[in-house]
Amino acid sequence: MLPGALRRRGFLAGALGVGAGAALTACTSNAAPSAPANAPAAAAGGDNATPGTPVTIGFSAPAADHGWIAAIANNAQAQAQAYSDVTFEAVNPTNDITQQIAAVQTLINRNVDALVILPNDGSQLTSVGRAAMQAGIPVINLDRIFDSPLAYRTWIGGDNYGMGVSAGNYIGERLKAAGVANPVIGEIAGIDNLPLTQSRSQGFADALGTYGFRVGPRQAADFTAQGGQRVTANLLQAAPRLDAVWNHDDDQGIGVLAAINQAGRNEFFMVGGAGSANAMRDIQADNTVLKATVTYSPSMASSAVALARLVAQGRGMGDLAEQEVPASITLASATITRENVATYMPLGFES
Questions:
Q1: Kind and range of the H or E element at 189?
Q2: DSSP state of 329
Q3: 8 A C-beta contact, residue 147 and residue 130
Q4: pTM for the full model?
Q5: How many Cβ atoms are within 10 Å of 38's Cβ, its own excluded?
Q6: How far is CA 96 from CA 101, 112, 152, in A?
Q7: What is the CA radius of gyration of the chain?
Q8: Which structural domains are found in the chain, ordered by start?
Q9: β-bridge pairing 185-189 and 244-247
Q10: Residue 85 carries which DSSP code?
Q11: Sheet arrangement for strand 154-157
């Protein structure tokens, strides 16, 4: 482990060098021209995988009650194992807020060099994030954000609003190209009282609005296959005609597709959400109404561990000019179709 004082300062300064552009001048000697003092900064590049100071990274996440969360834990562990200079300490996953706080406090007491935390609830775990930071342990806050920037060194997560925009743009472009006027566009959301669901729905509505379209029948499920099947059956009964549907989550999409098949409906196309391997295989086979999915990849856990390692070692990101790891990283939401599915298949998770 890093000495206490060094660890407290380590994440404030990186080891990334900054290059300078050389002036283009006529020169008759072999001496290289010196860079002016105000030369623009340039990234030096480098290999962040090169082993550095050995560090211990603590990890805490909710229990793997569906495919996406299971992939979060698996990706984090696999990334840590890829580094010879990382010891990975994962506490037992739990969906109990009190138990997760206690587990993270255990990692703080062990004096780990960095923490990666996907909280069950960002608001309720903010205090333990702040406790870690005050103890000199940098926190990489994964996905569900803490209430205060004082509780984390870096946040990394998906773009919920961007998911909705990507889904809305795909549907809008496809319907416009087909010349469909006044389309009926359904939406099968996740849990409505969650901010992430609200952001996804807002992005979807905003994107459709740019095409002159609006969201039609809408049902909220619970991110489970059972919930997806139940609410989709209700939506299909209430809507005798549909032109397109966006389902927020590929885990619940298993049930959504089951309900669609049971109803014998195929007059519309569907877009999924998150990027499960199941959904990608269906898109690749092109034998269901599912024609695309928009990503919210659990690969963010791999990146979180990589960031925690760099921060704990006092290193920056080799391809950036800045010497520090950024304070916030939002992943883009890509649209996966039959044309590009092979590229994204390695990132898919099993529902």
A1: strand 185-189
A2: E
A3: no
A4: 0.83
A5: 6
A6: 9, 23, 21
A7: 23
A8: 55-157+299-319 (3.40.50.2300), 160-296+335-347 (3.40.50.2300)
A9: parallel
A10: T
A11: 86-90, 55-60, 114-117, 139-142, 154-157, 328-330
Q: Tell me the residue type at 112.
A: V
Interacting residues of 165 by C-beta distance below 8 A, sequence separation 6+: 203, 204, 206, 207, 333
Who's near 181: CB < 8 A, 6+ residues apart?
A: none
Rounded-to-integer distance, Cα 67 and Cα 349, Å:
6
Packing angle of the helix pair 250-263, 225-238 (nearest 10 deg): 40
Three-state DSSP class for residue 270: strand
Cα–Cα distance for residue pair 161/205, rounded to 1 Å: 10
Residue 257 burial class via C-beta count within 10 angstroms: exposed 0-12, middle 13-18, buried 19 and up: buried
In angstroms, the CA 217 to CA 165 distance is 18
pLDDT in tens, 34-90: 444 455 655 555 689 899 999 999 999 999 988 999 999 999 999 999 999 999 999
Which amino acid is present at 164? G
Express each pLDDT in 264-321 by its tens digit.
999 999 999 999 999 999 999 999 999 999 999 999 999 999 999 999 999 999 888 8
Q: DSSP assignment of 116-158, as one string?
A: EE--SSTTTTHHHHHHHHHTT--EEEESS--S-GGG-SEEEE-
Q: How many CA atoms lie within 13 A of 8 on its CB side?
A: 5
Cα–Cα distance, 269 to 59 (Å, whole number): 39
Query: CA-to-CA distance for 151 and 164, rounded, in angstroms?
Result: 28
Give, in order, the Cα–Cα distances in Å from 154 to each of 78, 140, 234, 324: 21, 5, 42, 11
- DSSP bridge partners of 88: 57
Contacts of 240 (CB under 8 A, 6+ apart): none
Residue 61's nearest CA partner among 298, 345, 252, 281 is 298
Q: Could you tell me whether strands 335-336 and 290-295 are parallel, antiparallel, or unpaired per DSSP bridges?
A: antiparallel
